[in-house]
Structure formats: structure tokens, C-alpha cells
Amino acid sequence: MNFDHLLKTIDLQLIEHQDRPLHPTEVLILRGNWQFKTYNQIALEADYSPGYFTTVVAPELYQRLSQLIGQRMTKKNCRSLLESYFTSQQTALATPTLSLEIDQDALPCYPSGSVPLDSPFYLQRPLVEEQVEREIRKPGALIRIKAPKEMGKTSLMLRILDYANQHQYHTVGLNLEQADQSILSDLNQFLRWLCANISRQLGRKPMLDEYWDEDMGSKISSTLYLQDYILESIDTPFVLALDEVNQVFEHAQVAKDFLPLLRSWYEEAKKMPIWQKLRLIVIHSTEIYVPLQLNQSPFNVGLPIQLEDFNLAEVQQLAQRYGLKWQDGVQARQLMSMVGGHPALVSLALYHLSRQEITISQLLETAPTAMGIYSHHLQRHWATLEKQPELAQAINLVFKATEPVVLDPIIAYKLSSMGVIKQLGDKAVAGCELYRRYF
């Protein structure tokens, strides 16, 4: 299939269904995909930051195309899905009796993972976002975003990076879940992994061996690498966003070295102007349970941001975006009585309700069962609890209690990270009624 012809066809359909054609950066990614190039190759040839393509442009592009063709698209299946879709479109046009017109834009995509930048189903948190945007402009800023899994941390991170890119900042987004456990458990390997990934996302050749010195140690080596190789070579601010930093918490010795290192990079900005270019974003699911001295922890400096559940007005607003006519708040209250304002659980319910696959009564009746829409979500938590009996015992204690329960700090950290409990000071309660009934 001719790529240029395909490109024109995609533009026409996107204008019809989404009111705008492909952005030039989206065209670059599609053309690169057609030529089997990596994001790094595409970005370097076009003089863009690879991190911008990886964390901002590509997710938005695939979300738009997924909505257009009605199937989930990734870099791996992009070419085959588009060729198949437009071949079938041409066949349908040639055979009018078999043609079926579907408004793809009216059908929301299944809510999973972070919410793409242009998605109408992203619920803005104006106060939080304005606060973060002000902070990221400050020299040497450090922003800490904390919330359990599936609360919208990564979606917020995408928007911070997009804001930074619009201001011509250099950006790198790294998810520590992508690091092998063998790397996370070894400080030297982990810092080399970190510096190598920063280099590649910035379109720079990794020069680790030129800066690494065994006599000085990996912390000094990585610091000099950032200072002399990365920061020295750029003339605009550099935003480094580290997602799922709690992955490091599982490796106590690495955490005791790495977290104070982050703090030291933040403190360097007070002494050396070159470090003022660095703006750190640290994202984690729970409080750290590794003991650190107060003057070493990055979790008591910078701007703290804690993402909360949606409130009633926000649930109603999101329901409206899904096309549901919830005017009086009755249905929203019914849903929240089961799942609270948990963003992922609320979005999943609204998705199914908007497709008229199930009524609100049926959804609530089956929600805490293996037949409900949350079965996969609940089974995933159940599998985790089965592997760690101490967590299962603790959660059973919490769910049977009529008052908040004090738990071992590490147990509380793990359950809070899963989102199945909420912490009220040093005590714990059920995350929502869904978990209480299921477990």
C-alpha cells in the first residue's frame, strides 16, 4: 500500500471524526514506522528529543488511530492494522450493500493505563496542574507525586512533560518498572541504566565508560556524568521524570544510596548554577518504608503532590463525557458507594455503561464477583495476596474490623501501593466497598 496515499486517507478520516488532521510529528512517527525505524532514529533524524516521541507524541497518536479504526494500536501492530483497515474500507466502498457506517469517535476506547494527551476522558485537576506548571519553571525544582496505582500519576506526568516540551525544555520520562530486578538490586548497574537511558532519550550517545571511575564510586560517577556530559551540553532546562520510584524501595540498600543521591542533585542547584537546569519529578505509589535520615530524604523537600479520589461532581462530569445523562447525581452516588472515587474503577464502569452493555443495577450487583466488570482487576490483586500470605492476613484483619487498624509499616506500604487499603495516619481502612465484599 502506498504510504502517501494512506496518509491522505488517514488525514481525511481524522478531520471527519476528530476535527483535526495528523500533526507533523505524528506524520514523522508513522513514516518512521513504515520504514521500520526506532523512535530514537526517527527523533534524531528530525532533530527532536526521543523522549518526547516516546512519552508524548506516540501514545497520543496511537490513541487517536485506535479510536479511528476501533482496535487497540501499538508501534508493533501499527502498519498491519492500518493496511488491513483501509483495505477493508476500500472493499466496503466498492460494495455499497455491505457498507456499514460507524461513528468511531462516538465509541470510547477501553480505559487502560495512562490517558492520552488529547483524550476527552482525561479529567483535569486544575489546581494541581497549575501548581505543578508554576513549580517546573523554577530553577532546580523537585516535584513529588504520590498516589496508589491507577490513580492518574502517569497521566499527570505526560501532561507535565508536554507542558515542558511546549516551553522548549529537554525532557526524559523513565518508568522504573522497566528496569530488570537484577539492575534494581545493584546500585552501580542501576545508575548506569539510568544514565544510559537519559542519554538515549536526549539523543546523545551513552559515554558511561568515559565518566565511570571505580575509585570514586557510582554515585560520584553518575553525578559527574549528569553535570559534565548532560547539563553542560544543553542551554535550556532539563526535566527528568522518574515514575514508579517505589520499585527501588524493595531493595533497601540501593534505596539508601539512590534516594539521598536524588536529594543531593536537588541540593546542588543551591550551590552550582549548572544544576539549576535540572527539574526532578519523582513519582511513587506509597510512602517509603526504608529508614533515611531527614537530611538525606528527597521526600521531605520540593513540592509534594498527592492525587486524591474523584469527588461526586468530578464523577458526574466524567459520566457526561461518556454520554451518560446523570443529572441528579443518584447514579453517581450509587457507583461511588461501591468503588469510591477511584479513577480507574470509575472510568471502567462508565465505559461499560456508555456502551449500554449493562445497567447500573446489574453492574453494582455483579461488581464484587468473578462475573463482574472488575473481575480481572480483582483477580490480579487476589494473585498477589496468594503469593504473600502475610498481606492476605492483614487485609482480612482490616476488612473485618469496625474501626481503623494499625498494621506493620511494610505491610501497610504494600497494601496501600495496591490501593486495597487507605491509610489514615498510622491506621488502615478498606480502600472501597468493592474490595471489602470481594476479599
Write up this protein:
This protein is 53% helix and 9% strand. The chain has 21 helices and eight strands. It has a five-stranded parallel β-sheet, with helices on both faces. The protein has a three-stranded antiparallel β-sheet with strand order 6-8-7. Helix 3 crosses helix 4, helix 9 packs parallel to helix 11 and helix 19 crosses helix 20. The termini are far apart. About 3% of the residues have low confidence.
Question: What order do the helices and strands come in, and which of them pair?
Answer:
Layout: H1 3-18, H2 24-34, H3 39-46, H4 50-69, H5 78-94, H6 126-136, E1 142-146, H7 153-166, E2 170-175, H8 181-184, H9 187-201, H10 208-211, H11 218-230, E3 238-243, H12 246-249, H13 252-268, E4 278-284, E5 303-306, H14 312-321, H15 330-339, H16 343-354, H17 360-366, H18 375-387, H19 389-400, E6 405-406, H20 409-418, E7 421-424, E8 427-430, H21 433-438
Parallel strand pairs: 1-4, 1-5, 2-3, 3-4
Antiparallel strand pairs: 6-8, 7-8
Number of helices: 21
Helix content: 40-55%
How confident is the prediction overall: mean pLDDT? 87
Largest sheet: 5 strands, parallel
Query: What does the radius of gyration come to?
Result: 24 Å
**SSE succession:** HHHHHHEHEHHHHEHHEEHHHHHHEHEEH
